[in-house]
Amino acid sequence: MTTLQEMITEKEYLVKDESRPQLKWYAVEVTANCEGKVTERINDAIKIKDMSSKIVDVLNPCFETIENKMGKKRKVTQRPYAGYIFVFAEMDAEVAQLIQNIDKVKRMPTSKVAGRTLPLPMPSNDIKKVIETLKVKQKEEEKKTEFEVDSNVRIKEQQSPFFEMAGRVVKVNKEKERLKIAITILGRETEIDFPFTSVENI
Question: Is the dihedral of CA 182, 184, 189, 193 positive or negative?
Fold first, then answer.
């Protein structure tokens, strides 16, 4: 699974390539929850058919986040654009056929060009919005684990008896991803230990 850090920081996705204006972004509708598998299969097909010069990027807008429920951590896949992946390609009949022949691909929006029906490229503003949304999501994920001593936080774990109570960070243990938070209970300040995933900055 591609993380937001890998997706946005290590690899900067272009909205367009000024040196190759024929490269465009295309939306590909796929079976729900199969975005990762389809992305892998397209990348494998690109290698087999040696088409990396025509299909430059395949973007799967899915990422993993950590949730804490009833004191247990679990990985959850977030899909801001569920049921879609995006390809940056120089589109022609060969490229379109390669993508359409991938298992779990449903369809691509099409239009007629010079008498031929080919996939319809996305407007630049649309793909720009996709990429910007992913960058915002990355910042939100990073903020969840950015805690400092004396900063104010709120308990977000619904199963906690302290749900929605506010407190002050007393100690940060980054290695164990835990915080010691001072919460006022019945007029007295009490220090309680919480995992990162149970609190949020306010």
Answer: negative
pTM value is 0.69
**Percentage above 90 pLDDT, the chain:** 50
Provide the token pair at 110: 């099409």
What token pair was written down for 173?
A: 């243990």
Give the model confidence (pLDDT) of 5-34 as tens digits: 344 444 456 677 788 889 999 999 999 999
Residue written as tokens 């001593």? 149
Pick the CATH number of 4-144 from 3.30.70.940, 3.30.420.10, 2.60.40.1930, 3.30.450.40: 3.30.70.940
From 88, 80, 66, select the one nearest 196 (Cα to Cα): 66
Domain ranges within the chain, ordered by starting residue: 4-144, 152-201
Q: Are 23 and 88 in contact (CB under 8 A)?
A: yes
